[in-house]
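Narrative progress, year one. The postdoctoral researcher (J.K.) led the effort to move from monomer predictions toward full complexes, under supervision of the PI. The following entry was the first complex the group processed end to end, covering 238 residues in total.
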Amino acid sequence: MKKAIVVGASSGIGRELAKTLAENGYVVGAMARRLHLLESLCNEIKGEIFVQEIDASDTAASMGILTRFIKEMNGVDLIVISAGTGDINDKLDWHIEHETIKTNVTGFAALTNVAMHHFIERGSGHLVGISSIAALRGGRESPAYNASKAFESNYLEGLRQKVTQLGLPIIVTDIKAGFVKTAMAKGEGLFWVAPAGKAAAQIFNAIQLKKTHAYITRRWRLIAILLKVIPASIYERL
Ligand SMILES: NC(=O)c1ccc[n+]([C@@H]2O[C@H](COP(=O)([O-])OP(=O)(O)OC[C@H]3O[C@@H](n4cnc5c(N)ncnc54)[C@H](OP(=O)(O)O)[C@@H]3O)[C@@H](O)[C@H]2O)c1
């Protein structure tokens, strides 16, 4: 039986993915700050589930917590980092920028570091990061959020290159999500908003296929192509 940890399993994409993994026979380890939501997830999952509170923005503590949780589950095959934050920041409030950086940059790197050490030690594994289409360009609504997602995608690429050189069968998957109907989907002008269940199903499919990259939902590949070709002089005015 396969075992997976989902960090950020209390709501949204991570919660739906935890359920999808359990439905497909995985033993699931669910992590986030809101313990009551993780406990309610236990009632929605029929299979075996482990639960652990974690605050990804508290780097020193979270690395130890994830390490111990992996040991408690006697090792895992798959670790998904869905934990993330971001807010519309019209006034460029430093508090919002800092929280985003602490969770999505420092927190993300710290947790993937623990995950990679675990997989390298056991000689195999699968790391999945839930990045965003926002990784492709800067964004005035939330500069730290777009930059943090660029960091995540770039960091995952670095980790993938590292394990390729080591010759280990460790898969690193970069999920670039478009809009998904969760608390994170904020602001006006949202389009192609996918239900979280649909996003989770497509992410699970990418995991099964051991993909290195996936756009969620798939049609967001078209927006990615567009974003990549728009010249900066035009993009800055949009
Ligand atoms: N929804 C979208 O349109 C969209 C688009 C592209 C990418 N994404 C990405 O998808 C991921 C999941 O977001 P979502 O859309 O599912 O929104 P969500 O429902 O708000 O889920 C965010 C998850 O991250 C966890 N989290 C946030 N800060 C944390 C921290 N400091 N420590 C531990 N866990 C933390 C939350 O749990 P607690 O609050 O309980 O800790 C929650 O489980 C994020 O990385 C987000 O950037 C979302």
